[in-house]
Amino acid sequence: MPFRPEHIAHFPTLAAQQPPRLTRVLAWMIGVTILIVGVILFTVPWVQTSPGSGQVVALNPEDRVQSITALVPGRVEKWFVHDGDSVEKGDPIAQLVDNDPALLSRLAAERAQVEAEIAAAQQAMAVAQIDVGRSQQLLSEGLIARRDYEAAQIKVADHRAKLAEARAKLNRVDVALNRQSAQLVRSPREGRIQSINAAAGATLVSPGDVLATLAPEKPVRVVELMIDGRDIALVHPGRPVRLAFEGWPAIQFSGWPSIAEGMFDGRVRSVDPSAQANGLFRVLVEPAPGKRDWPPVDYVRLGAKVRGWIQMETVTVGYELWRQLNDFPLEFRRPGLGNEAGTGRTGGSSESGSSPEGGK
Hints:
Elements (H helix, E strand, L loop, with lengths): L11 H6 L3 H23 L1 E14 L7 E4 L4 E6 L6 E2 L4 E6 L5 H38 L5 H35 L3 E3 L4 E6 L7 E2 L4 E6 L5 E7 L12 E6 L18 E8 L9 E7 L17 E12 H10 L34
Antiparallel strand pairs: 1-10, 1-14, 2-9, 3-5, 3-8, 4-7, 5-6, 7-9, 10-13, 11-12, 11-14, 12-13
Helix pairs in contact: 3-4
Keywords: Coiled coil, Membrane, Transmembrane, Transmembrane helix
Organism: Novosphingobium indicum
InterPro entries: MFP
């Protein structure tokens, strides 16, 4: 029955107040708003997320930035590349020279001398072995004493030791020659020269000193996220992840991933078993199969900053607000369990499913 002015006569106090129309409209709006908010809090789903930040890294160790070092002491005589040059595997990077320019010729002469010593030792040992045979025959005939026969054997052993020493010396000379042959520093793989240590060209370098840094051209990229230790127990390989790359415009709604813009999909690849020095845990995220490809490497290079949200269980908006106000950890649901009475949680989970393994 519609409300009529004569009805106010039954309520003298209300009739005496005579509330204005604006007040009645505002009261209706507040009531409807409370009703709508209540419906949203207890019916609208919300995807819980574990946020983290990190950077783009290469999955394979060979695809990461590598340092090209000197293998022998000396100084840089010539550079074959400049900053930004593309190189293939085996291309020359720098030419080193020893502090002694005559070192290679002296090593070659020393090697020739050692070879002559080996030849002389072999000939002397052959003659000594003949003497041993002759002494053995004379001893059997009683023409010499046993002492002479034993002296001949000792002489053979002495020549054998000298021969072994000469061969060891030859090996040392060959090692020195092989090391000096490494004076031409080559690229270990294909890539692009990121920077050159120009100071190495004017000073002496030692084995292990960095000459240049090499960056790969087409690395297999993954994202390295740092996650708080309170959430890491719920992060498992296969969990879906939403990523926002540095320099790529994006609008993120962590609880409603379907309406986010400019975001890219990923999947948890691995979780480190121990924390980093800052107390956070490292999580590697790979591209999600069947989803949109990540931005090209020209736009998102190695080392670019990334923000990520690892998707967890799906709860109601009211439950999530209650959890945030009380600073409780994320929701944990064991595989096979449905709704729990009185919690206000929905039965499903995020895109990963209800299992903590995220549909792995």
